[in-house]
Fold this sequence. Notes:
With 160 residues, the protein is an alpha+beta fold. The protein is 34% helix and 26% strand.
Amino acid sequence: MSVTDKQASAVDPVTDPARLGVFASLDPERWSRLLTYMEVKRFRPGDVLIKQGAVDRGMYIVREGRLAVLVAAKDGERVRRVGTIEAGSVVGEQALLDGKPRSATITALCECELLRLSFDAFRQLHATIPELAGTFLFELARVISLRFRTAQTDDSPSEG
Length: 160
């Protein structure tokens, strides 16, 4: 089970691993403002952050730790690990944007600290600081685009 800590700004925004990944384009001041809309969540090894099929519009930014991405087969009996998520990455961004059920189960591989942004908090950010919300969305779109391109390359038949 996760532990929540409202002190999302306890880490120096200049060196925050969560900012230095996907959100490196945000300067420390804008990152600090964004942090006020997030909550810190801590997980132990084996804890489930996201359950495949669940409906929850929150997303996470990994500050510390590593996560496993698990996908159940259509029969529901077999589960395979399809990836690992490291500090500086995001997880759950699709559900934040489209509200659809989760496409994978995400579990902690070690002690982890993540920043959670709920959909309601994002709506509040958008109403209060629309420019920052726009930048945030642009960075999420970039992540999704890069993941899509990688998936296309990985699934492409080899030529030769």
